[in-house]
Automatic annotation (TrEMBL):
<dbReference type="InterPro" id="IPR013149">
    <property type="entry name" value="ADH-like_C"/>
</dbReference>
<dbReference type="InterPro" id="IPR013154">
    <property type="entry name" value="ADH-like_N"/>
</dbReference>
<comment type="similarity">
    <text>Belongs to the zinc-containing alcohol dehydrogenase family.</text>
</comment>
<dbReference type="InterPro" id="IPR050129">
    <property type="entry name" value="Zn_alcohol_dh"/>
</dbReference>
<keyword id="KW-0479">Metal-binding</keyword>
<dbReference type="InterPro" id="IPR036291">
    <property type="entry name" value="NAD(P)-bd_dom_sf"/>
</dbReference>
<protein>
    <submittedName>
        <fullName>Erythritol/L-threitol dehydrogenase</fullName>
        <ecNumber>1.1.1.-</ecNumber>
    </submittedName>
</protein>
<dbReference type="GO" id="GO:0008270">
    <property type="term" value="F:zinc ion binding"/>
</dbReference>
<feature type="domain" description="Enoyl reductase (ER)">
    <location>
        <begin position="8"/>
        <end position="343"/>
    </location>
</feature>
<dbReference type="InterPro" id="IPR020843">
    <property type="entry name" value="ER"/>
</dbReference>
<dbReference type="Pfam" id="PF00107">
    <property type="entry name" value="ADH_zinc_N"/>
</dbReference>
<dbReference type="InterPro" id="IPR002328">
    <property type="entry name" value="ADH_Zn_CS"/>
</dbReference>
<dbReference type="Pfam" id="PF08240">
    <property type="entry name" value="ADH_N"/>
</dbReference>
<keyword id="KW-0862">Zinc</keyword>
<dbReference type="GO" id="GO:0016491">
    <property type="term" value="F:oxidoreductase activity"/>
</dbReference>
<dbReference type="InterPro" id="IPR011032">
    <property type="entry name" value="GroES-like_sf"/>
</dbReference>
<keyword id="KW-0560">Oxidoreductase</keyword>
């Protein structure tokens, strides 16, 4: 089969490799669509290494069609369309037991420890099936949309932590694919106003199309002034920091009303620090939260939002490539000007 194999940092090669051979309890899935995640970019660059090995096939945001089932598999059959929740919690550690399986101490993931979706075929190990990480979906649901359930599930986790709800005034910093998902989720949750800050003009346009009420260019406009104007001088209920820029943290705290909530959704560059005026938190009784990955329940709910059309996931895709053009796909994703970049391995020609 054709696969994009990562041989080391900055060494991704599209090449022919042996088809995976499945064993008992496993599934062989033909990958129809696999999206490039910001994390994949960090893995390719070599700045994220946890769980990564070489050579390996990365890609954890994908959906496909079952082509073969291993001995003992009874709940899936060839032809089934499936979405894949890539993170497999151990279900045993202190965090799993406490309902925080997204930060499981022993978690493994497809696209990291197990080969992922930038390939024509992927073997789904038995442990993944056992954990309920493979979800059958209606054949009428576009698989490219289902492939985006994983990033959407992380955003859903973030919005829960930040308690976005009916009538919330929400500020979202950054309108990349993750920022757009936050816009769509906040809209679906009944937010009163969604204010978005984004430097790139094409991303600002997409933010408006995704449902933002006010979209500003922080290079030219004063976000704090605009947020105050939109909220009777009070400030936002919730700010979601969807870009990993440490220098923004303090200014972001100033956007909040008393009792407001800042969610650190994006990861920051490793080792980066930001200096903050702690009195902003103290006197304004601000609440802060972080968000890392998602639970299986988050995934099921995110997928349901896509399947029912509540979230128009396909509209987040700005670029589509066959697998043999994976290099170009990654170049576009690295340039960071589009939104979701998706690779379609089954159209690559064998
Ligand atoms: Zn991802
Ligand atoms: Zn665990």
């Amino acid at each position: 089969m054709l696969a994009a194999v990562l041989h080391g940092p900055n060494d991704l090669r599209v090449e022919h490799v042996n088809d995976p051979i499945i064993g008992a309890g496993e599934l062989l899935v033909k990958v129809e669509a696999c999206a490039i995640c910001g994390t994949d970019l960090r893995i390719v660059k070599g700045t994220k290494t946890r769980g990564v090995h070489y050579p390996s096939i990365i890609g954890h945001e994908f959906a496909g069609t079952v082509v073969d089932v291993g001995e003992g598999v009874t709940n899936f059959a060839p032809g089934d369309h499936v979405a894949v929740a890539p993170i497999i919690p151990c279900r045993n550690c202190a965090y799993c037991v406490n309902g925080q399986e997204n930060v499981c101490l022993n978690r493994v993931a497809i696209g990291y420890e197990f080969n992922g979706g930038f390939a024509e075929l992927v073997c789904i190990p038995a442990v993944v099936l056992d954990a309920g990480n493979i979800v059958k979906i209606d054949p009428g649901v576009p698989l490219e949309a289902a492939a985006l359930a994983e990033p959407l599930s992380c955003c859903l986790n973030g919005q829960r932590k930040a308690r976005v709800r009916l009538n919330s005034n929400v500020v979202i910093i950054g309108a990349g694919p993750i920022g757009l998902m936050h816009i769509m989720l906040a809209r679906a949750a009944g937010a009163a106003q969604i204010i978005v800050s984004e430097l790139l003009p094409n991303r600002r346009e997409r933010a408006l199309a995704a449902g933002a009420d006010v979209v500003i260019d922080p290079g030219r406009e004063n976000l704090l002034e605009i947020v105050k104007n939109c909220t009777n001088g009070l400030g936002a209920d919730i700010v979601i920091l969807a870009i990993g820029v440490p220098a923004l943290v303090n200014d972001t705290l100033r956007l909040l009303r008393k009792g407001g909530h800042l969610n650190f959704f994006a990861g920051m560059p490793e080792g980066a620090t930001s200096s903050i005026d702690a009195n902003l938190i103290h006197y304004n009784e601000l609440r802060l939260s972080g968000t890392s990955a998602s639970t299986r329940q988050d995934f099921y709910e995110a997928l349901n939002l896509i399947v029912t059309g509540k979230i128009a996931a396909s509209s987040l895709i700005s670029h589509r490539f066959p697998l043999r053009e994976a290099d170009q796909a990654f170049a576009v994703a690295f340039a960071g000007e589009g939104e979701k970049v998706v690779i379609y391995p089954s159209q690559s020609g064998r």
